């Protein structure tokens, strides 16, 4: 399943900065006719409108607020590509006193948020021919680091949901893409202490639209991610991406 973003309409959550902003700009560069900048505060998207004009349409969407997700789906009824980029990060080990609260916070945004976006926009994508749903997961969805164990757990869960969505949405012709960046130059990456090894968000954005065009499911966009992806590829290719039918016995 392949897809050309030219003349299509794209929605990006968390589009006002970091990876989301790079994805929005890449979509426009690839010829998207319109990009919905789905953000918690629509005022934060004004600089994007000032730079790109009416091709950028701000819309309010907060992964913690199901009503805003449903409202965004009612607004963006013409969308062909939904990129769920927004997410949250807490740095907690599994033994920290606040770890359970942090995990609940991360699960609500990173996992339930993905599910809410998928449930709201799947009918829209179907009505518009199938389209694409992209989820920003992480290398930590397959490798846990102790100092951010709760975040890793939330991303492992979002990766599991993404795999399920791939199968659930196949029948309606929706391509699903799972993106697994390593350290990226974002506010979140800097807060996590990755500034010295992080790479440009544009690398992620380019890899996403290349994957959409090629029909790929997994995306390992940066040097660290490529190393993890290479080690993981045998399992991913044979088990996750394989078309082997489930044995009902």
Structural description of this entry:
Belongs to the short-chain dehydrogenases/reductases (SDR) family. The protein has a seven-stranded parallel sheet, with helices on both faces. Mean pLDDT is 92; it is low at 244-249. The protein has a single domain (9-240), classed as NAD(P)-binding Rossmann-like Domain (Rossmann fold, 3-Layer(aba) Sandwich), CATH 3.40.50. The radius of gyration is 17 Å and the shape is globular. With 249 residues, the protein is of the alpha/beta class. β2 (34-39), α2 (46-52) and β3 form a beta-alpha-beta unit. α1 (18-29) packs across α7 (201-214) and α3 (66-75) runs parallel beside α4. The protein has helices at 18-29, 46-52, 66-75, 99-127, 149-170, 187-191, 201-214, 223-240; strands spanning 9-13, 34-39, 56-60, 81-84, 132-136, 175-179, 218-219. The chain is built from eight helices and seven strands, in the order βαβαβαβαβαβααβα.
Shape: globular
Largest sheet: 7 strands, parallel
Model regions low in confidence, pLDDT < 50 over at least 5 residues:
244-249
**CATH-level-4 superfamily name:** NAD(P)-binding Rossmann-like Domain
Strand order of the largest sheet: 3-2-1-4-5-6-7
Number of helical stretches of at least 4 residues? 8
Examine the secondary-structure arrangement and name the CATH architecture.
3-Layer(aba) Sandwich
The structure class reads: alpha/beta
């Amino acid at each position: 399943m392949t897809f050309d973003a030219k003349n299509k309409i794209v929605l990006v959550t968390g589009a006002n900065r970091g990876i989301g902003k790079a994805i929005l700009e890449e979509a426009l560069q690839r010829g998207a006719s319109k990009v919905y900048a789905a953000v918690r505060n629509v005022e934060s998207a004004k600089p994007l409108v000032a730079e790109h004009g009416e091709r950028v349409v701000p819309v309010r969407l907060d992964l913690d607020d199901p009503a805003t997700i449903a409202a965004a789906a009612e607004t963006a009824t013409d969308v062909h590509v939904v990129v769920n980029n927004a997410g949250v990060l807490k740095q907690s080990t599994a033994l920290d006193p606040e770890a359970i609260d942090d995990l609940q916070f991360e699960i609500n945004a990173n996992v339930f948020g993905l599910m809410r976006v998928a449930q709201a926009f799947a009918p829209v994508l179907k009505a518009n021919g199938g389209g694409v749903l992209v989820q920003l997961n992480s290398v930590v969805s397959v490798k846990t680091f102790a100092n951010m164990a709760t975040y890793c757990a939330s991303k492992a869960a979002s990766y599991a949901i993404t795999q399920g969505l791939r199968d659930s949405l196949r029948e309606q012709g929706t391509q699903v893409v799972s993106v697994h960046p390593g350290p990226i130059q974002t506010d979140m990456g800097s807060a996590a202490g990755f500034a010295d090894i992080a790479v440009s968000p544009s690398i992620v954005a380019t890899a996403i639209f290349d994957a959409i065009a090629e029909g790929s499911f997994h995306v390992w966009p940066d040097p660290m991610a490529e190393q993890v992806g290479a080690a993981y590829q045998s399992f991913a290719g044979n088990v996750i991406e394989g078309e082997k039918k489930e044995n009902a016995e």
